[in-house]
């Protein structure tokens, strides 16, 4: 199957939104999706997020969303927030192509790590990442993601010292 | 004891590098730290920075015996959730040991922990005063949350080791939740040869 990978443009946000929702349905968390393609339009620019999709002329069938992060031990890193290929297009190397592209872009920026998260029950994804040499830091070292949002975030903000 | 918190600037990189190293030495993992002062200057203070920082400072009369007035920091960057939008990630949070348990109004709380996200082994003693949160570490974390909110973020994320029960309890008591335990997300990493191989076109 012929496919191409390119950087996303603002005009892609509607399709990216569609695929974000498809991925959320797959992850059994579609109620968690709060942002719209309008949000994506402004936030992509703000957060220096890049997305790769298959170009038009073809159908948009997958995307990767990433941003740069930092480790005070090892320096520049890239975080793969989303990696998605529509079910009917899997098995053609598109997911692998997208992930490699993100790694390549990161390498050009001297990133020494690529990080992501995966659901513990998502065995196909975990197997895929394992074949790429990814280490599971949660299983291997006990790292947990912790989050403040909603009321807990507001409460934390209210305790910030005055400038 | 009086202290102040402000945005880090490029001149702070020497002290930030020092504090990163202090923590790593204390943890006996200093061989893991590859980042230098110069890396911090380039990566944090160029046109498209990879991170931002805030510094906790004390007045001259409270400087350490080595002469340091910059005694704590938090390092953060902006991230994104394709579900919820803008988020802020706190990569490091650190207060030099002799400045822990300090409250701005002079009262002394039980010792709070060093909360560096790299790898923290220092145990946290919890008491009601700690939970009322007036220590420098708490102030730094709140400031990161405030900066995030001002930038339109609706999440503050970070990581903690599962065996560090006292830290986990400290954070959970402040209303955050454990995304890994509750939702099943695992942190994954590609680096070294695996990353080189992945990056082949």
Automatic annotation (TrEMBL), chain A:
Residues 3-154 form the N-acetyltransferase domain. PROSITE patterns: GNAT. Pfam families: Acetyltransf_1. It comes from the Eukaryota. InterPro entries: Acyl_CoA_acyltransferase (IPR016181), Diverse_Substrate_AcTransf (IPR051016), GNAT_dom (IPR000182). The chain crosses the membrane at residues 44-68. One of its GO terms (molecular function) is N-acetyltransferase activity. Belongs to the acetyltransferase family. It comes from Collichthys lucidus. This is Diamine acetyltransferase 2. Keywords: Acyltransferase, Membrane, Transferase, Transmembrane, Transmembrane helix.
From TrEMBL, chain B:
Pfam families: Acetyltransf_1. Coiled coil: none annotated. The keyword ATP-binding does not apply. The keyword 4Fe-4S does not apply. Residues 133-175 form the N-acetyltransferase domain. One of its GO terms (molecular function) is N-acetyltransferase activity. Keywords: Acyltransferase, Transferase. Gene3D superfamilies: 3.40.630.30. SUPFAM superfamilies: Acyl-CoA N-acyltransferases (Nat). Belongs to the acetyltransferase family. This is Diamine acetyltransferase 2.
